[in-house]
Amino acid sequence: MAAGEVCRRAVRDPDRLPDTARGRVEVITGSHGDAEVVDRAFEGADAVFWLVPPDASLTPRDAFSGFTGPAVKALAAHGIGHVVGVSALGRGTPLADRAGLVTASLAMDDLIASSGVAYRALACPSFFENLLEETDSIRDRGVFTDVVDPDRKAPLVATADIAAVAAGLLLDRSWTGTDSVPVLGPQDLSPVDLARIMTEQFGRPVRYARRPLGELHTTLVGHGLNEAFVQGIVDMKRAKDQGLDAAVARTPGTASPTGFEQWCARTLRPAVFS
Description:
Blueprint: E1 7-11, E2 25-29, H1 35-42, E3 47-50, H2 60-77, E4 82-88, H3 101-113, E5 118-124, E6 126-127, H4 135-141, E7 143-146, E8 154-157, H5 159-172, E9 178-182, E10 188-189, H6 191-202, E11 207-210, H7 213-222, H8 227-241, H9 260-272
Helix pairs in contact: 1-2, 2-3, 6-9, 7-8
């Protein structure tokens, strides 16, 4: 919008649009997993930003490729030239075919590319924002949890940096073919590193507690998630702990600017101390 582009958004609940977008975007009400909605949304469009909201009531395949199927048909029907999608690291690695939700995301990329559009898959590691699910535990107990080795260093990224790369590609549109665009953050960090930085930022101790994969599976199934989807989460977590996200080298072109210290001060600290 800042560049003067006319933007259209498919959204289930228009009342939840941020104030910065109200009156500035054309709204198509409904789910972008519905054929009728994407048919209206894609009419006359030059480029599409595609982000699947994983539905934990479905299998990983249905949540990614099944949800995307109607859009793929609409892309071809409306002659869309360019698509940018949010995906995952791991393509071409030995772990890619047994990485759960990541495997499903990569299959979705292949499905979109099969439509004939020029496609860029933003290959992302885990997000800083995942830690927002831990705010109560950090606030009340000074603990955050995951299932990876405490010393496993891996790339992490802020979602705002992913958005900036996506916006740049959508504005450019001189690119052709199909490719992945890694967005890796400025440095690799381990859970121990995250705990140290949070301790420094908050002025009080924060520690990391590693959970067993089996415990994660039991907890998520107990919350009513589809068991196949839960297994997809577990398989993804296992693959990440085995180095799934470490296969792409960080370069000036793949690094993104927001460091964890900056994100922690701007986003996590206010959430923890609100």
